[in-house]
Amino acid sequence: MICDFGASRFMGSTTKMSLAGTFPWMAPEVIQSQPVSEKCDTWSYGVVLWELLTHEVPFKGIEGFQVAWLVVEREERLTIPSSCPPCFAKLMKECWDTEPKQRPSFRDILTRFHSMNKDDSLSDQTNSFLEHREVWKKEIQATLERLKRAERDISVKEKELMEREMKLKEREKSLEQQFKVVHLDSYDVNTWREVDVYQWIQQLNNGHTNDLAQYADIFYQNNITGKRLLLLTPEDLKAMGISSVGHIRDITTEIELLKAHNYRLMNFPPLSKASPIRDTSELPNYKTLTLTFIIGHHLRLGSSTEVRIII
Description:
Keywords: ATP-binding, Coiled coil, Kinase, Nucleotide-binding, Serine/threonine-protein kinase, Transferase. The chain is mainly alpha-helical and 311 residues long. The chain has helices spanning 28-31, 39-54, 64-72, 86-95, 106-117, 121-131, 133-178, 194-202, 216-221, 226-231, 234-239, 245-267.
């Protein structure tokens, strides 16, 4: 017997294991990096017992991570041939119980083997099972084919989902470029595009005007640019399909406020930030002057260059 102790742990030193090992032999809790016990070895022993009986490779031809998914998510197990001796079949099923506490301990397994050793009929059952290998091998192969089809279906669906996700990301990126959020209050409304007006309507989603954002699509469908927005009248809004008198009044009020803001922006632009001086040689040549202020009728002259004011 060749043993691999690569994922072994001292009993009592830890209850968790890192993801290390070969998936067909790994218990579900090991695959999921959950707390483990010696019962995860019981699971692996069940797989080894299956190998000894069938002389087959566990989950042959199926990728490791797919095996992990099948075992954990779909609770698939290795196929136990129908003609397998009942005592071995029962033991393997118990070794592969999803609940670790329900699996037998190795002490229990040894006790069972002692009982099997006393069963005279077991030898004949095992020989008969091995003689009909070609029959039950087809059962194992049929299960593998079913799992491989499931694997292909999963791969196809995964590919479709990935393609769909990519398309959604591309569309999201396109919309982000098209409806790029900008500080609209910093630009002349007359230069606004249709998407800018769309964004402005959506930004009205606050306070008592929280219902106005629903009309963003109407403005966009009617190709309302910033210049056209400033010219809209209540009659125009009604013709566009806005039937609520209150909403028409609110939008009209917002447009009037926008006009006032735009007027201030165009006629009284904000002060620009002072640009940094690149070279000290460009500094103007300042001269120091001494000024004397006379306030009232009292003046005290001094030799200092400081200005003194006496009231």
